[in-house]
Amino acid sequence: MQDLGIKVLFEGRNFIRLLEGLWITVEISFVSVIISMVLGVLLGMIMTVRNPVIKVITRLYLEFVRIMPQLVLLFLVYFGITRAFQVNLSGEVSAVIVFSLWGTAEMGDLVRGALISIPKHQYESGKALGLTGGQIYRYIVIPQTIRRLVPLAINLTTRMIKTTSLIALIGVVEIVKVGQQIIEASRLSVPSAALWIYGVIFFLYFLICYPISLVAARLEKAWKTV
Amino acid sequence: MNMDVLREYAPLYLEAAGLTVRIALIGIAGAIAVGFLCSLIRYFKVPVLSRIAGVYIELSRNTPLLIQLFFLYFGLPKIGILLSSKACAITGLIFLGGSYMAEAFRSGLEAVPSIQMESALSLGLTKRQVIGYVLLPQAVSVSVPAFAANVIFLIKETSVFSAVALADLMYTAKVLIGMSYNTDEALLMLVLSYLGILLPISVIFSLIERKLRYAGFGN
Question: What is the spatial distance between Cα A66 and Cα A107, in angstroms, rounded to a whole number?
Fold first, then answer.
């Protein structure tokens, strides 16, 4: 019976369990996003420094992390580090490490882009007006940078949330894994469970990411720098 | 690191890389077609279709590829639609990529000032000529950086296909780790394979971008 498939959602604690799984996803995303934002701002500032050694190192880090699929990075940390250093990382910790490394690289590049997009003459005009270096940053650079940065950072956040779906593949019991468990458990009683559960997970992700994307799009429009 | 193991794995990875690249090519070509169509529909505000394209873009951009694939691969068979893992992978990539490409093209279309269209029309060009000679060439060159970023993003996303049992690079690595415990070698080959695919593309794209910027487009 196709049309009764949805009942699997409301059997026992199934729906609550899915939401709990979603919460794990959100938690891991949240921690990684916070770490990425803080480290990303630092990295972005470091990347504007004119030092060839720093430039090469940050560039290599950035290119490597950006070019590798996130799933590969997860594998590298989850399987590779565990073996290389004989430490036992849980899937959750591996996920936070990977998403922080990746998010920091992406955020760093955004910050760098925003910082160098401020025309040089603004620094010079500030100086000519007698502002100190700190004041130039405080009143001229940072306000403009933030306007450029916030919408992009919010977009990065939705990307990170979506990408956390991958951690089911290294065994973290988040929403996708819970969904699989429910489908397994009801394989005989509700054969069409997969359709409904994955459909619901699809919309749960959408419900989380869409409002965030909307905010980003609104801010981008409102703060469009001329 | 054991060289014999590496030598033994190399052909497996080559084969998997070939599959990854083939699927990525088909998927990206499809995504470009879908994206181009959607962006034109949205740009010219075609009634009804524009709405549908908008809903599709938002749905596709705000959900993870993994879930889209699971829905295609595990969900759809329950209502009688059976897709092979290859078909799922390609469909998923087109579904996901279409919206990203659509947004890239749209930003290109919107970057062309409307005064150019009006001038072209007043010069006596037909609407088709205006689109073909004035609008599209500029829109395409403006959207090249976003387009390039999307191509790389989509190739990276192909790594998820292993989850629907496609024998791609990730899948090969997973199997080898599980079977032989040569984790270091399997992971090294995995990284090298993706570097081998993505690094040249990334370098080529940044060269093209630089060329376009010199030509006065883009910025």
Answer: 11
Integer Cα distance of B22 and B101 in angstroms = 19
Q: What is the pTM of this model?
A: 0.87
Q: What is the pLDDT of residues A125-159, one digit of tens each?
A: 999 999 988 898 888 888 888 888 999 999 999 99
Tabulate helix, strand, coil % of chain B (nearest 5): 85, 0, 15
Q: Decide if A39 contacts A105 (C-beta within 8 A).
A: no
Q: Are B106 and B142 in contact (CB under 8 A)?
A: no
Q: In angstroms, rounded to a whole number, what is the distance separating the alpha carbons of residues A197 and A199?
A: 5
Closest A-chain CA to B194: A68
Instruction: Give the integer Cα–Cα distance in Å for A137 and A41.
Output: 14
pLDDT for position B190 = 92
Judge whether A209 is closer than 8 Å to chain B, CB to CB: yes
A54 touches chain B (CB under 8 A): no
Which residue, A123, A115, A120, A121, is CA-closest to A144? A115
Considering CB atoms only, which of B64, B162, B195 is closest to A205? B64
Do residues A115 and A43 make contact, with C-beta atoms less than 8 angstroms apart?
no
A217 is written with which tokens?
């799009």
Determine which of B78, B81, B179, B219 to mutate to test the interface with A (most A C-beta atoms within 10 Å).
B78
